[in-house]
What does this fold into?
Amino acid sequence: MGIGLKNIFKSFFKIGFGAFGGMIAIAHIEETLVKKKKIISRNQFNEGLALAQIMPGSTSTSLVVYIGYNLGGLAGAIIAISAFILPAFTLMIFLAIGYLHFQEVSFISSILKGLNAVVVALIIDALINLSKSTIKRKREAVIALFTFFALYFLKTDLFLLIFLAGMLGLIFYVLEEKPCPPANKS
Amino acid sequence: MSTGKQKLRKKLKIITAVISLVLIILGFSTPLLAKLNFTFLKIGAIVFGNGYTVIPFIQKEVVEGCNWLTPAQFAAAIVFAQVTPGPVIILATFVGFLVAGIPGAFFATISMLLPSAFLIIILAKQHQRVKNLKPLQAFFGGVVASVIGMLAAIALNFSKTNLVDIKTGSIFGGSLIALTCFDVEPIYVVLLSCIISLFLF
It folds into this structure.
């Protein structure tokens, strides 16, 4: 317990720097903080991961906040998430500056034309990865299809849609057959 | 020794409180920053899983709702978010920068992270109770499944505007095969496409 705020910053800065894609970040955290440095216990890591997965927020950033908070309270949480996001933030600023200055330059605009095509592939890839990890039973597929039709054809409001999808998940859960709890014989 | 530590803790708390107050005042000092912050606080509350949920919401709020970004700029933002380290929510940084420069990038990123960070800190000590809330998990499970449908709708919309000829179609096809069949990292796919685009367009 207590590794000092400076060390929290250093550890998470390194993790944030090497983490391309959220899931890799989680593997990095496990590798360095749990296995190598033994700053947090495996148990605590698993608890944090479980919480990060069910609560709103991208899993990796939520996990970083959780670990930072456990290591150094509120200050620890703030330091950890800042350090984790800093490399991506800095790089993104440079990309944005470059984009604004050079989007009119002819060879950059040809690159951007190509990237407009790549983005469709990136989204479909994300969709496939998410389907693999999410669709375990029929109900998830039903909800995904329902959302697609409602959004694409009916242009349903997104916030309403996300609420409806949650309610569908809840309804499926309520309707699911559960084993009978033992009778209360007294 | 322990009193020294306690003093330091107290100082840290005061510093944190002062900085937060200053940030809140600055963040809502202009109508543009205030609207930017509200938008990203709202979006930050509905991020799930890998962060892909933010893509449809940013498109709706920022591209269609406020006209802050053109669809082409938004497409570039998604690509950049994939090639930078960290989660996709870093999209907020790019959007914020285009809307209001460095302060915009700074505040959009904080607003995006704040709702979930707040929830985690509140619940960190009671995770046992949250973990066993099956109905809550069922609700969020439904939400995550719906993101798949949203991404599909977005991909279809993008393909109509972005895949217009054989050249763009083949870059798309090549990238998709590399990503899905050969599990190539997005950053290499993007870099290679950049080089190919130089010759194609």
